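Open question from group meeting: does this chain pack into something compact, or does most of it stay loose? Before anyone orders reagents, we agreed to write out a predicted structure and look at it together. Recording both the input and the output here so the notebook holds the full record.
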Amino acid sequence: MTDINKKHDVDHVLLRQSIVYLSINMTYTHSCDSGGKWENNQITKQMENHTPQKRHQAIISFSRDHHFGLLLVWKIRQGLNKAVNPERISNYVTFFFKEDLEKHFKEEERLLFSKLPVGDVLRKKAEADHLAIYKLIVTIEKKNDDATLLSQLANELEKHIRFEERELFNHLQNNIPIDELASIDSRLSNSSKEIDEKWEDVFWEIIK
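Structure tokens returned:
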């Protein structure tokens, strides 16, 4: 088996782990995310009223991207736990952001968030999360030897994905007209496998 095929097999296993991880984390309460309650009463009310529902195809493609976002979180933490040089992890983070996450964020903002009123509290939270992550990425590019920044990014990205999966996506589906959702249901998910084919330093792998 070639090294590339081995890498693909490892990433396939990690992807399945990330999907299980996402499913488990979707059951947690939001108070666990920050150790306290949401300060915005409007957000809290919408969170209390959410119920599971079947996802529209237009939303499913973004959920699939989230599996790879959680895989990035896992890779960062795996590298930090193995005491990998933070520069190696930072280099991959900035590469993955430019190849995948940035595109995902911009498409969410253009195709989904924009369908909600500008003053919608969940839209405002999602946009604020994106801005905070954008700023973290810029800082990591400048200070690529800082393990604390990498840990912060992993935490913020995980919390943001959890928020979108449990709250925002249901809210979007309930508030965007079905014909508007149908107009974007051909949108394709990003391919993490193709992206990682361009990257050689698989620092997250467990060497036996």
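Observations to bring back to the group:
The chain is about 70% helix and 0% strand.
The first helix runs from residue 3 to 25.
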